[in-house]
User: Fold these one by one.
Assistant:
Number 1:
Amino acid sequence: MTTGCSEDDIIDCIDFDGPEFNPTELSSAELYQPYLQRIDVAIANEPYDNLFNYSLKFSGELPAGITLKWGDNQQSVTLEGIPTRTGLFEFELAVKVSDPSYDNGIVYQQTEGEVQDNLCYDSEKINYQFQVI
């Protein structure tokens, strides 16, 4: 028997409610050729994930000529540019998600229902390998 968890918390964990990255692997880039790859993060099984507060962090190395651009609400990053060096480059993306914004103590609501602000886990990280050939 689980103690200290509500029935909703247990259901959220069974549904794996928490942030996930997509895609989990990157396509290779070609030397001196334009490259564009978007990485999104969203809360699995949460229809109102765009109302949560996201904080993304990057650590690691990108090849010369490739830049990292942050998307709206830090729910995405885009790698773009023209790589000028071959090799295998590794980096990590980490995300921390906090409850949706509140207005006078009331969770913002959509017309179809209330935001579910119970998450099984509120952070995730992923290691990417980025190859330039």
Note: The first helix runs from residue 7 to 14.
Number 2:
Amino acid sequence: MTDEDAFIMSLAENIARRGHRPLEILADIELLLARDYTIDDIITRTGLSEKYVRDIVFLLEKGEERLIEAVQNSTIPWTTALETARAKHDDENLGDMLEEAYKTGQLKGHQITDAKRLIEKRREKGPKTGGDRPKLPNSAHSLVKTYQREVARQHKLMLKTDHAHQQLLLVVQGLKRLFADEHFVTLLRAEGLDSLPKYLADRIETA
């Protein structure tokens, strides 16, 4: 299995996993876009709906760093971020949209105030933060790295197992020669040491 196959497998498992959050899916799709996957490829490989994938790609391609950061910080929900990104910067209806989101429960408590501040800052300074936004949760990439570490660990374990097997063969061959010596066996019997673990005894008989 190639790293690319492992990446796609981990991504598919992540998205299918119960409780996988929208922000994590956004991060996974961002990784796929960085690997030059098309929207159709992403839809086919992840099993996500076309609308959902296109909405996420829309937010990423618009460079909506402030909105992405706000979603990451739980300032606004995913749906509000999308609606805001689709609206024009000078859209006076944005305030009404936020009020409606508050009434319907999309925005709760202090989120309405934080969202209004975000919209105002976005209107004044644009969608980009002007710096590096916090990295999105890189769940799929992390799983690939975990997979690679596990493969490396298994490889080392196999090498150790093979080495132990070779050492055991040497021990078995040595014991077989010793037990073929009647004087040695007599000495062991005199000392009460003429028995062996069944595993070793069986190996000596079949060696």
Note: Confidence is low (pLDDT under 50) at residues 136-140.
